[in-house]
Specification:
Layout lengths: L1 H7 L4 H8 L3 H8 L7 H10 L22 E4 L5 H19 L24 H10 L11 H7 L3 E5 L6 E6 L7 E5 L8 H7 L2 H4 L2
Helix pairs in contact: 1-5, 2-3, 2-4
Length: 205
Amino acid sequence: MVVWGRVARGLTQGEGAKIAGLSQGLLSKAETGMLSLDRERISAGARALEGPVDRFTSSAPPDGILSACAFHRKRSSLSVSDAKRIRALLDLTRLQVEGLVDECTPELGLRRESPSADGYTSPEDIAGSVRQVMTDATGPIANLVQEVEHLGVLMVKRDLGALRIDAIGTWPAGHRPLFLLNSSAPAHRHPFPLSHELGPPLSHP
């Protein structure tokens, strides 16, 4: 959790340690689980990473780094450091949002499916099946974000800290699909990454 928080802020281990008032060696051992930080040091780390203390005293999900299957819609090249930071932000956002899912959240109306190696199930087939479960399946979709939310997809608008990416999403097995829409991107661009990623890319494991 400390690693996720640090990377999501775009900090190197040395930078994170300096802001928290810790040695890099101590932070390294804490991140790898070689030692446990006391409450005072955890509080200092939480302040440095701008997160609640409880976040850094909880365990990461048993299935590990969820954004391993992340995909993003970018307008041009995205730096490696920005990509790592945004994926960590995606993971942290999932932990936050999934804690709010309750009986009022629409049931997931999409089937997790992958194109077949023999081409029998194509990306076009999967995109067509997604369209069929939408409320307005025959004509132009007036509000794609609303349609996607009605299908039980988690949608969050956040500043991704990079103008070269419109959105990032992921759909790990056993979870709902989650999209982060870049609040720095013009609103009229949001349907483009959604329509591009909602079908076949969301279906890949």
